[in-house]
Every structure is written in structure tokens, then in C-alpha cells.
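Task: sequence design from structure.
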């Protein structure tokens, strides 16, 4: 389908929206809910010193009782930076599915929004991994010198997330290339 055929109220766009509209609406809502949910979880976790001491205490094998409010705020701040990238990926997902709802599926703008989802997601995941040592240092800063810990760990879910985001990035590149080729062909017709 060409861009001209996919006008907002064309029969093709209406038919397409009937087939994929519920998926697009559901994923747009899911993106917003996910971003808000993650922010809520971060705020709830970093506001509870007992939960921090229990969770990170097990991970670091250290007694983290007595964590100071500034440590909680600093660790939340680091995680908030990661969340900003996550929220950006969610916004790009919202825009991607809004583009699909307008009937613009295999178009350059849709490919670019898909690429933004993938790149922001990769950035969020890599920053989350790379800031883990900083968070461990922050939450052990109240411990005596020599007992402060720096911990870097990689979870299987981290690699799976990066793999799936790499697939999205590859698909975005393929869709972008296809849209550019289709645009070049339409100029000759």
C-alpha cells in the first residue's frame, strides 16, 4: 500500500485499523502503564530502608542496616536516570503504534520510531547494568572504610533483553531500508 492509499479515513486505513487497532491501542496503553508502574516500583523500593537492606544486603552479603536518607535518594536518582530512558522507549512505542493506527506501517517514520524504541531500550538496559556498581557503592557508603562494596553483576534476563532489542533494531533497519527503496521506486512510477 502506498502512502496515498493510507489516508486517515481511506477504506484501506479503516480496514487496517479494524484488523490491528486493538493491538495498537493495547500496546500504547501497556507502554504508559509500564512506565508508570516502573516509576512507582522504584519510588516504593528506594523509600523503604528495610527493603533496601534486605534486598541489597542479600545480594552484597553485607549488613546494610543504618542506610542514610541521602543514600536512598542518590540510589533512586541513579535508577531514575535509567527510568528516563525507559520512559523514552515507552514514548517511542506509543508513537510507533499511533503511527500504525494512522495506517503508516511500512513507512520511514514508522521505521524510525521502531528504531528509537530499540535504541532507547538498549540505552536503558546498558545504563542499568553499568550503574549497578555505582548503586552498590552508594548504598554501602555508610559502612566503615574497607567494607564498602562495588558489585557488578549480569543477569540472564539482561542478555535476553539486549538480544530482543537488537532484533527490534535490526527490524527497524530492514523496514527503513524497505521504505527508502519503496520511496525510490514510487518516484519512477
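Answer:
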Amino acid at each position: 500500500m502506498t502512502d496515498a492509499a493510507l489516508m486517515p479515513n481511506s477504506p484501506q486505513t479503516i480496514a487496517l485499523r479494524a484488523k490491528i487497532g486493538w493491538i495498537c491501542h493495547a500496546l500504547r496503553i501497556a507502554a504508559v502503564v509500564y512506565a508508570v508502574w516502573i516509576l512507582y516500583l522504584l519510588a516504593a523500593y528506594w523509600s523503604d530502608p528495610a527493603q533496601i537492606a534486605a534486598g541489597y544486603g542479600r545480594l552484597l552479603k553485607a549488613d546494610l542496616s543504618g542506610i542514610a536518607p541521602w543514600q536512598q535518594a542518590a540510589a533512586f536518582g541513579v535508577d531514575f536516570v535509567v527510568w528516563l530512558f525507559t520512559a523514552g522507549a515507552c514514548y517511542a512505542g506509543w508513537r510507533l503504534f499511533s503511527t500504525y493506527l494512522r495506517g503508516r506501517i511500512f513507512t520511514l517514520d514508522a521505521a524510525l520510531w521502531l528504531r528509537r524504541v530499540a535504541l532507547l531500550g538498549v540505552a536503558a538496559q546498558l545504563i542499568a547494568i553499568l550503574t549497578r556498581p555505582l548503586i552498590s557503592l552508594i548504598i554501602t557508603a555508610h559502612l566503615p572504610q574497607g567494607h564498602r562494596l562495588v558489585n557488578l553483576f549480569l543477569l540472564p534476563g539482561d542478555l535476553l533483553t539486549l538480544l530482543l532489542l537488537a532484533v527490534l533494531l535490526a527490524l527497524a533497519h530492514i523496514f527503513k531500508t524497505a521504505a527508502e527503496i519503496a520511496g525510490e521506486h514510487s518516484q519512477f512510477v
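Residues 11-188 form one domain.
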